[in-house]
UniProtKB/TrEMBL annotation:
Involved in the cellular defense against the biological effects of O6-methylguanine (O6-MeG) and O4-methylthymine (O4-MeT) in DNA. Repairs the methylated nucleobase in DNA by stoichiometrically transferring the methyl group to a cysteine residue in the enzyme. This is a suicide reaction: the enzyme is irreversibly inactivated. It is found in: Cytoplasm. Its EC number is 2.1.1.63. CDD domains: ATase. Pfam families: DNA_binding_1 (PF01035), Methyltransf_1N (PF02870). It catalyses: a 6-O-methyl-2'-deoxyguanosine in DNA + L-cysteinyl-[protein] = S-methyl-L-cysteinyl-[protein] + a 2'-deoxyguanosine in DNA; a 4-O-methyl-thymidine in DNA + L-cysteinyl-[protein] = a thymidine in DNA + S-methyl-L-cysteinyl-[protein]. Keywords: Cytoplasm, DNA damage, DNA repair, Methyltransferase, Transferase. PROSITE patterns: MGMT. This is Methylated-DNA--protein-cysteine methyltransferase.
Length: 236
C-alpha cells in the first residue's frame, strides 16, 4: 500500500516533505531523482497542501483578479408605483435597472456572466440611487444625478442612450428625431432597438421616445409602465 505523501511548498525554491522526510530539489539529501511536476501528476490524490500556502495562493489570486478589473456588482430591490425595480451598480456607477417582468434572477445571472461573478446584495451601496428613485416617483425630482456605468451598451446603442439622458422631463421625442439628433437619420429602427435594450430604464429615459404618430411604441417595462411614467412626468 502506497504511503500518503504530504507536500508543502515554500515561496522561493522547493521545500517539501515526503512521509516526514525532507526532500530537496535533487531528492533526499540532494541525491536521487528530483521531486517535480511529474511526481504530482502521477498521484494527485496523494498530495496535501499546507493550508498556509493555500491562503497565500488565494490572496494572490484575489489580488490578480482585482488587478484585472474584476468588480463587485452590488444590487438591491426597491418598491415603486410601476412595480419592484432591481437596481445594480458597479464601482463605476449604476449599471442596471430591471423591471420585475424581466426576471430579477435572470438579470443577476446575466450580470454575473457579462460583468463579474461577484454579485452581492448591498442595499447601503445603492442608498443614494434608491433615494433618488423614490424622489422621482414622489414628483420631487426632475432629473437623476447618479454616476452611470454604460458598459452593457456599445457603439451606436451607447450613443443613443447618451442622447436620451438629455431629453427633459415632460418632453418626448420620436424615434426618427432621435436618429437625426445622433447623426444617422436612417437608423430609426436601430434607435428602437437601443431603447428596447436600454439597461438603465427610468434613469436613462427611453420611455420619452415615442412613434412619430404619437403612439407609444414598445417599452421594456410594458406599455402600462410607460404610460404611468409619462403621466407622472407630465404632472410634474
Amino acid at each position: 500500500m502506497m504511503a500518503h505523501t504530504n507536500i508543502s511548498t515554500q515561496q522561493n525554491g522547493i521545500g517539501a516533505r515526503r512521509n516526514g522526510e525532507a526532500v530537496t530539489a535533487g531528492g533526499p539529501s540532494g541525491k536521487g531523482p528530483a521531486l517535480g511536476p511529474v511526481d504530482l501528476a502521477l498521484a494527485p490524490e496523494l498530495v496535501t497542501v499546507d493550508p498556509g500556502i493555500l491562503g497565500r495562493l488565494h490572496a494572490r489570486l484575489a489580488e490578480r483578479a482585482s488587478d484585472e478589473g474584476l468588480l463587485d456588482v452590488a444590487y438591491r430591490v426597491v418598491e415603486t408605483p410601476v412595480g419592484r425595480l432591481l437596481l445594480a451598480a458597479t464601482e463605476r456607477g449604476l449599471v442596471r435597472v430591471a423591471y420585475e417582468r424581466e426576471g430579477h434572477d435572470a438579470v443577476l445571472s446575466l450580470l454575473a456572466e457579462r460583468l463579474s461573478p461577484r454579485i452581492l446584495e448591498a442595499p447601503g451601496r445603492l442608498a443614494e440611487a434608491a433615494r433618488q428613485v423614490d424622489e422621482y416617483f414622489a414628483g420631487r425630482r426632475r432629473s437623476f444625478d447618479l454616476p452611470l456605468d454604460l458598459s452593457l451598451s456599445h457603439g451606436f446603442r451607447r450613443t443613443v442612450l447618451q442622447h436620451l439622458s438629455g431629453i427633459p422631463l415632460g418632453a418626448t421625442e420620436s424615434y426618427a428625431e432621435v436618429a437625426k439628433a445622433v447623426g444617422n437619420p436612417r437608423a430609426v429602427r436601430a434607435v428602437g432597438t437601443a431603447c428596447a435594450t436600454n439597461p438603465i430604464p427610468v434613469v436613462v429615459p427611453c420611455h420619452r421616445v415615442v412613434r412619430s404618430d404619437g403612439s407609444l411604441g414598445g417599452y421594456v417595462g410594458g406599455l402600462e409602465a410607460k404610460t404611468s411614467l409619462l403621466r407622472l412626468e407630465a404632472a410634474a
